[in-house]
Amino acid sequence: MKKTFIAGFVIAIIGAILMGLGYTHKGNKDVTWQDGGFKVRDEKTLTKTFKDVQNLDLNTSDYVEVKNYDGSDFKVSYRDYNKVSYNAKKHQVSVTGSTGSSSIGFFFNDDFNPNITIYVPKNAELNAFSGNAHGGIKITGLKFNQLNISSDGNVDLSSIEVKDALKLGGESNLNLNNIQAPSLIANTNNGDINVNDSEFKSETSAISTKDGDVSIKETTLKNSKVSSSDGNIKFSQPNVIDKITATTSDGDIDASLKGRNDLSIRINTSDGTPRIFDKNTSYYDQGNRTTLYEFNSADGDVTVQ
């Protein structure tokens, strides 16, 4: 037993010495499995500049940040294991990467966080922005004709204008702040949806999550449907045009409305307490009833105030 302990201790010391020698000789590189073999990451950050960009297409597992800046050119800053190309006929920049979810490796750097940063001239308006940013994406202060994004990571949008319906999908959280578009088509499987101070007032919106909560605050919606299979739904001072329907299979619904005039409210709950303006009731009608709220919960309370 004692000999085994001593042998193990000696091996550990030798291993520590060898690791130290490797580290001091620049052996602290990240190693991943790609394209059928182990490869050492020795990536560099590159920047490409483009003119006359109208469309952007993504397919990368890196975290992507898109933001405006004071320059006049379209710029992409990226790690060299990604590919950035330009199609002159389509006026399109494409960003692709091979660091998919099948990659495995050994990472020595605590701050390993590969990312792509896209700089768009402040007054530019992109035609179409679409694709997959599997590592998450953040877009700030831009205008688009079309915006269609999916991601396995979080999607964070702020101060965005879109002429067509805004379409978002993925596996994690969707966070929207100060967004203007005709409508919102948003779906996530395993995350929350948070919409603040936004307007979707021209067309029907559909907002859904399978396993998460939905929070809508001070936002305009028209003829919209909001749903969660397993989570709570919360409205705070919404501006509803015509009708909104909220449905959860297993969760509570809470709504704090701007006023009580010209409303029609209907609550359906199989196993929970319906409550409207401090009364235990499942319906409310007042005035011209120009706005209809329909709240449905199979297993949860519904409270309107």
Overall 3D shape: flat
| SSE-based structural type | mainly beta
> Largest sheet at a glance?
25 strands, mixed
Compute the number of strand runs: 28
Helix content: under 10%
Number of helices: 1
The rounded Rg comes to 25 Å
Brief rundown of the structure:
With 305 residues, the chain is mainly β.
Explain this structure.
The chain is mainly beta and 305 residues long. The protein has a domain at 165-305. It is 8% helix and 57% strand. It is built from one helix and 28 strands. The protein has a 25-stranded mixed sheet that branches. A three-stranded antiparallel sheet has the order 2-1-9, with no helix packed on it. A hairpin with a 2-residue loop joins strand 1 and strand 2. The longest helix is centred in the N-terminal third of the chain and has 23 residues, at 2-24. The chain is flat. The termini are far apart. It comes from Pediococcus stilesii. Residues 54-304 form the DUF4097 domain. InterPro entries: Toastrack_DUF4097. This is DUF4097 domain-containing protein. The chain crosses the membrane at residues 6-24.
